[in-house]
Amino acid sequence: MSFPAQPLAEVALAQQPLAQNLVQSVDWLAIAPPTVTAVVGLVVLVTDLFVKDARKPLLGWISIAGLAASALMLLPLVNDDRSTFCQSGEPGVCSYTADTFTLAIQFLVLGGALLTALLSVTAVKDADRGLPEGEFWFLLLSSAAGAALLPASRDLATLIVALEVASLPAFALVGLRQGDRRSSEAALKFFLSSVTATAVSLMGISFVYATTGTLYLTQVAERIQHVDGQFTTLAQAGVVLTLVGFAFKTAAAPFHFWVPDTYVGAPLPIAAYLSVIGKAVGFSGLILVTVVALPSYADVWGPALAALAALTMTVGNVGALRQQATRAYSAVRLLAWSSVGQAGYLLVPIASAAYSDDPERSVGSSVAYALMYAAVNLGAFAVVALVGRTRSLNRVSDYRGLYSTNPLTALLLAFFLLCLAGLPPGIIGLFAKVTVFSAAVDAGLGWLAVVMAVNVVIALFYYLQWTALLFRAPEAATAGHRAPAPLTAAITVTAVLAVALSGAPQLILRFADTGLF
């Protein structure tokens, strides 16, 4: 039996556009940073099967090299916006975009993960097989890969997948210490809170998808303005639920309850990782959902985020103020509550974007503050990790007289704390707070600026109290703290960054133009 040639040709031509839609080119350079991190994680996992116990430390150095290589892959992307996984015929509708905002957050994530890895080399060695090395490094790299993917995500499906890839390994990292009850309890609290956040976010996103028929952020922004009247309530519920889900992820009050116990129970490098990279993940996702996908609902998320910012910074700073210096693990708890307060400051510019004529600049203020906070807070955790090697209870009172035994370490911790407080010589902390403060004032949120000013004064008390303790006479003779090379490198890098930014704070001005629009 034979068929006419002409109809077959027409069928082939009719199918060609469908084939073009299914086959997409991939910009491998654009996706290189998270991809390299993920590949190195798989390499570490496989290598762990064939490496003897005596050579397990090699896995840590492979991980450090991989994170350094991933960070270097950001350099070719500077000043060169790239997008990939786009809809055929619609180049502006893409799932992955490497713009200025993406690169800034990826630099924070990969740089923070690299510093965490340097801290972890010492922590894993000190644990004496208490932390399984292969699993530890694989989970850390997997989480970093998801965190690096998230700021580039431009559709809701990729956003949620990246969020969970960053979060799920973090649960395991928190509870990875064998035979430690505090670690298991911390992991359980972290897991339950994060799963709740994911469930609420997914429900909200499903409502948004039901009313717009798309997952791409730019299309959601366009279509949600023209939702049929009978679906308006559904769309509003979707917006609110999505915001609540991300509020959990950012540890905004009243969804912050898991933070202190989780930080205390986790290995100290992982607590540092959560305080910086965990926040970067939550805040970058929140920025993409609100400013990019839902600008027409600014009258909903603007007041909500402003109220959350005021409540979060107040709860965090009051919680830190109440910490007793002699309580076990009070140094870590103080930094945990401090990170909640800092989360409130980070929320201020995002809330301001709802009222500002230049929302991109408001978002840039949040990015600049996050970069400052990352360098300084990781430095403080690095010093706490050093002191914790000889003072296992890591109380604030253990730092009394640190200057007499370790002058340079005490000076660096004092500098980091002054940066967090926003006092000279920590000029970068002052500069970042002024940037956030001006974002609120320019947006007409004078009441929020006043609340922030009050909280900055509250924070001064516990930061200065800890700083003064470093230079008081020790109660008893104590030995100096010897720092292993990886820990020394982490402290040095954070110190250089903090000092350089304090000397030239304009270096972070470039991030005021995030390239989101």
Summary tags:
517 residues; mainly alpha; two-stranded antiparallel sheet; 70% helix
Shape type: globular
Q: How many beta-strand elements?
A: 2
Summing up helix and strand content along with how strands pair, one would put the structural category as mainly alpha
Mean of residue pLDDT values: 86
How much of the sequence lies in strands comes to under 5%
Could you characterize the architecture of this molecule?
With 517 residues, the protein is an all-alpha fold. It has 19 helices and two strands. The chain has helices at residues 5-22, 32-48, 57-72, 100-127, 133-149, 156-174, 181-212, 217-223, 232-249, 259-265, 268-293, 298-321, 330-352, 359-388, 402-405, 407-421, 427-442, 446-470, 485-503, and strands at 82-87, 90-98. It is globular and about 70 Å long. The model is unreliable at 1-20 (pLDDT under 50).
In short:
With 517 residues, this protein is mainly alpha-helical.
Show the helix and strand layout:
Layout: H1 5-22, H2 32-48, H3 57-72, E1 82-87, E2 90-98, H4 100-127, H5 133-149, H6 156-174, H7 181-212, H8 217-223, H9 232-249, H10 259-265, H11 268-293, H12 298-321, H13 330-352, H14 359-388, H15 402-405, H16 407-421, H17 427-442, H18 446-470, H19 485-503
Helix pairs in contact: 2-3, 2-5, 3-4, 3-5, 4-5, 4-11, 4-14, 4-19, 5-6, 6-7, 6-11, 7-9, 7-10, 8-11, 9-11, 10-11, 10-13, 11-13, 11-14, 12-13, 12-18, 13-14, 13-17, 13-18, 14-16, 14-17, 14-19, 16-17, 16-18, 17-18, 17-19
